[in-house]
Amino acid sequence: MTHSKTIKKEIDKALSTDRLANIIDPVRLEKNDKFQFRCHPDVPCFTRCCRNMNIILTPYDIIRLKRRLGMNSDMFLRLYAVPEILVKTGVPVARLKMLEKEGGKCPFVTQNGCQVYSDRPVCCRYYPIGMASLIQQEEDINKEEFFFLIKEPHCKGFLEKTEWTVNEWRGDQEADLYDSMNRGWFELLLRKRSFGDETEMPEKARALFYMITTNMERFRDFVFGSRFLDTYIVPEERLKKILEDDVELMQFGFDYLKNAIFGTETQELSIKKEILDKKVEEILRKRRHKTGLKGALKK
Ligand code: SF4
Ligand code: SF4
């Protein structure tokens, strides 16, 4: 198989579940590879791409946008988001609500461009560069990341002469910051996918997952206003941070979900021993009960 065929196959695999597959330029780019692109008010297609987009908002996108718009998460979600269940993972996410009555326009687009430009969602931010490790299968979590061009036919930005390396482009888009903020969330999605369809999330777990990954005010109330701290040990220093800082709270939420869904403990979040003992005892009791029933049926 030629090198380019191998790359094409790898990209196809990475994108097999994604409708983007037919608009990808199947060229693998490394960080120092160059491409030509510039988006500015004088391109004939200016802002035309900001409609009918399927934009999944990451938890960090929501924090940046609600802060930018000066509102709380409840208000932001009500005005700008639609809850959706991701098909492959069964995980609930928030999708940016397009304005159906206005031809599917993004609510943030104006004649002069994006009104939330410096806080726009990650998926608008990286365009036209895609990153394969963000969408690969769960077994590839630690695989080396690679990049590719998303070349949509209507986008005239590719005819411009401005040249970038992938690294320069990523620097300009704050990509490293966004990657580090979104990593915990992507890991949750990928890990959940590795559990397969048979481990469907119960309704209650879905609601909790959605709240923790979209609504920092409600999650904060949950941590400090429920019996959460009767169950979990959290160092005081971390508690102080999450009381004041949405980003710290978001990262804490990822740790909590990893613990609640996959049983992963960290030094900064662990379940209290007496609660754990109780849970183990309950599982064993259920198991004994089941075995007892099976034994009785066999007789
Ligand atoms: S289609 Fe491309 S060049 Fe045109 S506005 Fe959108 S990103 Fe910019
Ligand atoms: S958030 Fe900004 S860049 Fe993204 S689709 Fe809306 S207007 Fe366009």
What labels would you give this structure?
single chain; alpha+beta; three-stranded antiparallel beta sheet; 47% helix; 13% strand; binds iron/sulfur cluster; 12 helices; 299 residues; 12 strands
Helices and strands, with pairings:
Elements: H1 3-14, E1 24-29, E2 34-36, E3 56-57, H2 59-69, H3 73-80, E4 81-85, E5 92-96, E6 109-110, E7 113-114, H4 122-125, E8 129-131, E9 147-150, E10 163-165, H5 166-172, H6 175-194, H7 203-214, H8 216-225, H9 228-231, E11 232-233, H10 236-244, H11 246-262, E12 270-271, H12 273-298
Antiparallel strand pairs: 1-9, 2-10, 3-5, 4-5, 6-7, 8-9, 11-12
Helix pairs in contact: 6-11, 8-11, 10-11
Bound molecules: iron/sulfur cluster (2 copies).
One iron/sulfur cluster binds at residues 39, 43, 45-49, 154-157.
Structure in a nutshell:
By secondary structure, the chain is of the alpha+beta class. It has helices spanning 3-14, 59-69, 73-80, 122-125, 166-172, 175-194, 203-214, 216-225, 228-231, 236-244, 246-262, 273-298; strands at residues 24-29, 34-36, 56-57, 81-85, 92-96, 109-110, 113-114, 129-131, 147-150, 163-165, 232-233, 270-271.
Give, in spatial order, the strands making up the sheet with the most strands: 1-9-8
The total strand number stands at 12
Q: Pick out the low-confidence regions.
A: 14-19, 134-141
Distinct ligands: iron/sulfur cluster
Number of helices: 12
Taking the sheet with the most strands, its summary is: 3 strands, antiparallel
Number of domains: 2
Shape: elongated
**N to C succession of SSEs:** HEEEHHEEEEHEEEHHHHHEHHEH
